[in-house]
Design a protein that fits this description.
Ribosomal protein S3 C-terminal domain, GMP Synthetase, Chain A, domain 3, 8 helices, 4 domains, four-stranded antiparallel β-sheet, single chain, alpha+beta
Length: 276
């Protein structure tokens, strides 16, 4: 009996979400949440254009409240509207914008719409995007057009839970066109992301480049981390560094002496020729 109640409540919430999306089509509606409070049911709507959701002097919200009371038998539904800050990182809003632009301009400019939305999503900070448009575009035969850019996971738990997906439709003269959008957000937790820990900073985790990691493995950064070493090793490192500096100086001196000798050798025969 308890399981049936939970299933019925979830189904009711799903039907309310579907009804809200149908009523608020073309307004940039992302998703809705339903919460039970002692005063009544609280419904929060996340949208990109909250002004259009409210309407003139709150007409749209009044109609919504009446419909919800009649259809779903809610006692005191309280509707709240929250604005979505990053529009192009929300798959539902992106798919809705593509469908509305196709319904306005038709199927002739579908490539421009796809490339433009893809660039906007990548500029917003997404790691990867994939847009699939399927239907009778641009001719009478049905085709699948794919627009993709960046890095996108296709399998594993990250592809199911982490990637934002959305499915929308656009009603054109040729027929119904399906739109599928997949976005990989920047704040996703990746399993294959490698992080290196520097010596001496066991608690701190910092991202290091491949070149720095190679230097750490070779041991060329012992001088930088010599503060944590004992005195004997410090002295050895300092002696080796001094020896290398002295050797470099001797090499530079020898090269300079050789250059001077070559100059003198070249000048002597010219002077002899002048005397003759």
């Amino acid at each position: 009996m308890i399981e049936r109640k939970f299933i019925a409540e979830n189904l009711k919430e799903f039907h309310i979400q579907e009804h809200v999306t149908k009523v608020l089509r073309g307004v940039g509606q992302s998703h809705t949440k339903l919460q039970k409070t002692p005063l009544g049911e609280k419904i929060t709507i996340f949208a990109s254009k909250p002004g259009l959701v409210v309407g003139r002097s709150g007409e749209n919200i009044r109609k919504l409240t009446k419909d919800l009371k009649k259809k779903f038998k809610l006692e005191n539904p309280q509707i709240e509207i929250n604005e979505v800050e990053k529009i192009y990182l929300d798959a539902n809003i992106v798919a809705e914008s593509i469908s509305s632009s196709l319904e306005r301009f038709g199927s002739s400019k579908f490539k421009g719409v796809g490339h433009k939305t893809m660039e906007n999503v990548m500029n917003a900070g997404a790691l990867g995007v994939e847009i699939l448009i399927s239907g009778k575009i641009p001719g009478s035969r049905a085709k699948n057009w794919r627009f993709y850019q960046g890095y996108l996971k296709k399998c594993g738990d990250v592809a199911i839970t982490g990637i934002l997906t959305s499915y929308k439709t656009a009603n054109l003269k040729t027929g119904v066109i399906g739109i599928q959008v997949r976005i990989m957000p920047p704040d996703i937790e990746m399993v294959d992301k490698i992080e290196f820990i520097k010596d001496g900073d066991e608690g701190k985790v910092e991202e290091i480049t491949e070149e720095e990691a190679k230097l750490l493995n070779k041991g060329e950064k012992e001088l930088e981390n010599s503060k944590d070493l004992p005195k004997d090793k410090k002295e050895e490192i300092e002696k080796s560094s001094k020896k290398t500096e002295e050797g470099k100086k001797e090499e530079s001196k020898s090269t300079e002496e050789k250059k001077e000798d070559t100059k003198e050798e070249k000048v002597e025969p010219l002077e002899e020729k002048k005397k003759e």
